[in-house]
Specification:
This protein is an all-alpha fold and 193 residues long. The protein has one domain. The chain has helices spanning 2-15, 19-23, 25-38, 41-52, 58-66, 69-86, 95-124, 133-151, 163-183.
Length: 193
């Protein structure tokens, strides 16, 4: 039972970054559409042109994927996520948030090596394509999900407070204590303070 409770607490902490999307859903939607739809334009735009020109699409799709378009998209979208985490503003007040941010940045950095390996495997072989297109589509889907999760770390909405809000909170606490001290001139037994 204790292991279940620990896993539940970990899952709650891992889901906390999604509060950033909840607070700014339109900003996330714009980012997602630009990053993924425009980022994949090198794939869907030629296929769309061929489709309306009544030319074969699938063979061109295979050639585009085997040329490394999906793999290079994965590298770029994940690199953008890692870079944005390295320069994120208003971060650093929550040890848990720092740990989750670091963990997923490292996972993304390591995951980038897989599409790089795919590109190398595609172009080193004399026989042509060695990596299946389904596998490359699967890698792309994982990269999109991981980069979307990394997006959540840009804003401190999920447990990280900026320095100004921490300072304001501490100032308010000091002000409240000062007011209480002025009101209470004696303790409960009547001894002057």
């Amino acid at each position: 039972m204790e292991v279940f409770e620990i896993m539940k607490a970990v899952m709650i902490q891992l889901c906390d970054p999604f509060k950033s999307i909840k607070e700014q859903p339109y900003q996330f939607a714009v980012w997602w559409l630009v990053a993924n739809v425009l980022g994949l334009a090198g794939i869907w735009l030629p296929l769309l042109i061929l489709y309306f020109s009544k030319k074969p699409v699938y063979t061109t799709f295979q050639n585009i994927v085997n040329a490394g378009s999906l793999a290079s998209f994965c590298v770029v979208v994940l690199a953008e996520g890692v870079a944005s985490n390295l320069v994120a503003r208003k971060k650093g007040s929550s040890i848990t948030a720092i740990g989750i941010r670091a963990l997923f940045s490292i996972i993304a950095f390591i995951f980038v090596l897989i599409p790089v390996g795919v590109m190398i495997a595609q172009h080193v072989s004399d026989e042509g394509s060695n990596v299946s297109i389904r596998f490359q589509l699967f890698l792309t889907a994982i990269a999109i999900v991981l980069s979307s999760y990394l997006y959540c770390f840009r804003f401190p909405a999920w447990g990280e407070k900026d320095v100004d809000s921490i300072r304001d909170q501490e100032d308010n606490e000091v002000r409240e204590l000062t007011e209480k001290a002025e009101i209470q001139k004696a303790d409960d037994e009547g001894v002057k303070l």
